[in-house]
Design a protein that fits this description.
The chain is built from 14 helices and 12 strands. It has helices at residues 5-14, 18-58, 68-71, 84-92, 126-132, 165-171, 206-211, 217-224, 242-255, 270-308, 310-318, 323-359, 381-407, 411-416; strands at 61-65, 97-111, 116-124, 146-150, 160-164, 178-184, 190-202, 212-216, 231-236, 260-264, 361-363, 373-375.
Length: 418
């Protein structure tokens, strides 16, 4: 099938001045590559932050006794799940659920004998938490909770505890030290336990590390004198399945009349949500800047082409070409430049992303964190599509005004143009 005349002319005109066309293609390609690398870097940062919060702190979904979300902060022991094993069994039967682990948190006093400090004690099931702390969705990252000294709690530990690095530093605690843990029972009386430090941990959240200690849930229940759980933390196979499982849980609670309520991770990760919003705005500004650069580059290429071909335009108009055909011709030239530049930029972005990810980008700890990381470029189809569409759209948009001016030339004046 023969190529339409306007399309053939557009291709020939683009390669008439190869240097100018090459400069325009380079501008479009580099703009596209920049969008892909910036977008991929942001997506990588989002992914790492999201998974760290989920696996170290939040889980994908947290399940509470009904009423806890409204009044649990002021009266946490009034809204405990009294039969957590039954609820766990129901949740574990849902699709995409990998694990359900109980927690019970409470304020306590931790004493070394010489110094005493208020802490947030978190009673955990060691096996469930150790499974949750493993991240499989991020390359080169295996755990969200790491140990600077000692090791994590095991299933047979009863009086051993893990201490956050900041808390250990504040109280001058080392692995093997004996401590006294003091707290109120569910009934309001005072209770205390002698514990031994088994490990000192750190996470992506400095605030968490400064005030938190993790103890076996059996010890927490013994200290609080209860067999209940405050929270059931649900871990899924994929974060993308959160809303699906959340809907299933809500239906299950209604049909079986379970007195529970639940909250997904993204409603609890306030810092993550604000960071994503900030980065999204920065990326939007970057898109505008790159689009303006591409528009100016193509505008210059098309405008110079019209200036050089004024007499030629007058000739083809005298031969019977209509004004809309002239405008269509130059719009086609801009479109071809945009498509070719977008394709080259997409391929270049794919190559650059792969090379950069192969080497990695060492990053310092972000504000409020203690751990740096090695960033890479995520290959996200949406980012590639956005970069390509912006490149083509900017190229077409920049061709509109020069094309319109070319179509409005007066034939007699164009033929006399020297």
């Amino acid at each position: 099938m023969e190529m339409p005349l306007n399309l053939r002319l557009a291709f020939r005109n683009i390669f008439r001045n190869r240097v100018r066309s090459a400069v325009a293609l380079a501008a479009i390609s580099f703009g596209c590559i920049s969008l892909i690398l910036a977008g991929g870097f942001f997506e990588d940062s989002f992914l790492r932050m999201r998974e760290a919060y989920i696996h170290a702190h939040l889980g994908h979904i947290q399940v509470y006794q009904e009423g806890y979300l409204d009044k649990g902060n002021s009266k946490p022991f009034d809204y405990l799940i009294e039969d957590p094993a039954t609820v766990e069994g129901v949740i574990e039967g849902l699709d995409h659920v990998k694990d359900v682990t109980p927690r019970i948190g409470f304020s306590a006093l931790l004493s070394t004998g010489e110094s005493t400090m208020s802490v947030m004690a978190q009673g955990i099931d060691p096996e469930g938490e150790n499974a949750m702390n493993v991240i499989t969705s991020i390359k080169d990252v295996t755990t969200s909770l790491e140990f600077s000294k000692g090791e994590t709690l095991g299933k047979d530990d009863v009086f051993e505890v893990n201490i956050g690095r900041g808390l250990a530093r504040a109280l001058d605690i080392e692995v093997g030290d004996s401590l006294i843990l003091l707290g109120n029972t569910v009934g309001g009386s005072f209770n205390g336990m002698d514990v031994t430090v088994k490990g000192i941990f750190f996470t992506a959240s400095e605030e968490y590390d400064n005030y938190t200690m993790r103890i076996p849930i059996a010890l927490a229940r013994q200290l609080l004198r209860t067999e209940a759980a405050q929270t059931l933390v649900v871990l899924l196979d994929e974060t993308e399945n959160t809303d699906l499982v959340l809907a299933q849980l809500q239906d299950l609670a209604r049909t079986r009349n379970l007195k529970i309520e639940m909250k997904p991770w993204y409603e609890m990760a306030d810092f993550y949500n604000k960071t994503v919003d900030l980065y999204d705005r920065q990326f939007f500004v970057l898109k505008i800047i790159i689009a303006v650069i591409v528009i100016l580059s193509i505008f210059n290429t098309i405008a110079m082409s019209i200036w050089e071909r004024t007499k030629e335009i007058g000739t083809i108009m005298a031969m019977g070409f209509k004004r809309r055909e002239i405008m269509r011709l130059f719009l086609l030239e801009g479109s071809i430049l945009g498509i070719v530049g977008g394709v080259l930029g997409t391929l270049g972005g794919l190559l650059c992303a792969w090379l950069i990810s192969l080497v990695g980008i060492p990053m310092p700890p972000p504000p409020g964190a203690t751990v740096g990381w090695t960033a890479s470029i995520q290959l996200v189809p949406g980012v590639f599509m956005t970069a390509f569409v912006i490149s083509v759209t900017a190229a077409i948009a920049s061709s509109v005004y020069p094309s319109y001016k070319a179509s409005r030339l007066v034939v007699a004046d164009a033929l006399r143009y020297a």
